[in-house]
Design goal:
Elements lengths: L15 H7 L5 E5 L5 E2 L14 E5 L3 E10 L11 E8 L4 E5 L12 E7 L6 E6 L12
Antiparallel strand pairs: 1-2, 1-3, 4-5, 4-7, 5-6, 7-8
Bound molecules: zinc ion.
Length: 142
């Protein structure tokens, strides 16, 4: 397939602070000013206490693999296959999706991951790497 430019997110009024923090390699999420709960995706209302008040707060950038898939069918020329997409449950409890960078050795549900950054010209993007030496015991969903 011919090369094509990689698509990037388009920050808007609501998501601007989320993407803007990533310019400094920081992962910020909305945190409710009423009950201190983190939330993602961006929303005006806290799902826990219904408060409209919030701040943008840094989060750890660490979590565990909640789910993953290995993509073998190329759907965009900027993304050569195979690649692995992980759904990460952050320590703060929210889930973010992103690409797994580096080796997938140890990849399993529950594997500890940490954020790193894909430095693109205009918008750094979070990618995930497996942390730790020993893979966790895979969990069986019920
Ligand atoms: Zn709240």
């Amino acid at each position: 397939m011919p090369e094509a430019p990689r698509p990037y997110p388009r920050p808007d009024r609501d998501t601007g602070p989320f993407w803007g923090a990533q310019q400094h390699h920081e992962l910020h999420l909305q945190r409710c000013s009423g009950c201190a709960a983190f939330r993602f995706p961006v929303t005006p209302l806290c799902p826990e206490c219904r408060s409209f008040d919030f701040e943008w707060a840094p989060c750890s950038g660490r979590g565990k693999v909640y789910s993953y898939t290995v993509v073998h069918h190329q759907t965009h020329p900027a993304f050569p296959v195979p690649y692995t997409i992980v759904l990460v449950e952050l320590e703060e409890g929210q889930r973010l999706i992103g690409q797994l960078r580096g080796s997938s050795d140890g990849l399993a549900i529950g594997a500890p991951v940490g954020v790193e950054w894909e430095d693109a010209p205009n918008q750094p993007l979070p990618v995930w790497v497996i942390e730790g030496d020993s893979p966790p015991t895979p969990q069986v969903s019920e």
